[in-house]
Amino acid sequence: MRSEEYKSRLVEYFKKNLKKGYPEESLKWALVNQGYSRTMIETAIERTHKELADTAPVIKERPQIKYEILDEENKPVVLKRPWWKRIFGL
Questions:
Q1: In the prediction, which pLDDT does 50 show?
Q2: Which long-range contacts (CB under 8 A, 24 or more apart) does 22-31 make?
Q3: Residue 84 forms part of a structural domain
Q4: Closest Cα partner for 31 from 20, 17, 19, 21?
Q5: Which of 13, 20, 32, 85 is close enough to 90 for a disulfide, judged by CB 3.0 to 4.6 Å?
Q6: Residue 31 maps to a domain
Q7: From the CB of residue 14, how many other CB atoms can be counted at a distance below 10 Å?
Q8: Is 18 domain-assigned?
Q9: Structural domain contains residue 81
Q10: pTM of the entire predicted model
């Protein structure tokens, strides 16, 4: 097989197993133990990252984090401002 075919097969291997939740390091060492060269593995990892980044959705706006404190009956608790903020209008 050609080198490019090996790389594309390795890229598919990484994509499939990363989606399953396997850590990248364990996949890399499994391939090294099977006799694949480290440079070929590294280039396949870089290509995998690039391909996965290209398919990732682009976030157009920053998410806003909202929080509120709830009491025992799941009603929001209104916190008073400190006295110094009330006096100085902050």
A1: 93
A2: none
A3: no
A4: 17
A5: 85
A6: yes
A7: 23
A8: yes
A9: no
A10: 0.59
